[in-house]
Amino acid sequence: MTKCSSNRRRSTVLVVLGVAALVGAIGIPQAGADPQAFGFTGGSQEYTVPADVCAVTIEASGAQGGLASGTTPGLGGTVTATIPATPGETLVVNVGGRGGDSGEPTAGGTGGYNGGAAGGAANSTPGGGGGGASDVRQGGAGLAARVVVAGG
């Protein structure tokens, strides 16, 4: 891997809300290019840091929750951070999924991809499922490798 020096540039990773603010998405620019978009897939994706990049700025937004009768689902959280990066290293990208809508009359919605909790079941108004987090992981794919997380 290439050693970083003071004349290397920073790259930007964007995690933005997707269609109708339902799921997250992540965009990462290649050297000298516009950001590359990472949409919701329901699984992990990878990004290789370009040769001339030694720091990555990440703007992340988690996915919204599911609908429940008579309510408006909450949006996910948003966070911005800059992390040091090594040219050639692989970052693992997880884009959160929207929480499932409640099933009338008593079933709670399913939790969204990447950590969203299931909605509670109730006799009168069950809850929508929680939205999943969007995150970037460095040095591995496990939860302990998370370096930036925007909760759903």
Number of strands: 9
Strand order of the largest sheet: 3-2-1-5-6
**Could you tell me how far the N terminus lies from the C terminus, measured between alpha carbons in angstroms?**
34 Å
Order of helices and strands: EEEEEEEEE
Question: Biggest sheet, open or closed, and with what strands and sense?
Answer: 5 strands, mixed
Radius of gyration over C-alpha positions, nearest whole angstrom: 17 Å
> Strand-residue fraction?
35-45%
Low-confidence stretches: 15-21, 29-34
Coarse morphology: elongated
Average per-residue pLDDT, rounded, comes to: 79
Figure out the total of helices: 0
* Class of secondary structure makeup: mainly beta
- Fraction of residues in H or I helices: under 10%
Describe what this molecule looks like in 3D.
Strand 2 (24-29) and strand 3 (35-38) form a beta hairpin. The protein has a five-stranded mixed beta sheet, with no helix packed on it. The chain contains no helices and nine strands. The model is unreliable at 15-21 and 29-34 (pLDDT under 50). With 152 residues, the chain is mainly beta. The chain starts with 8 loop residues before the first strand and ends with a strand.
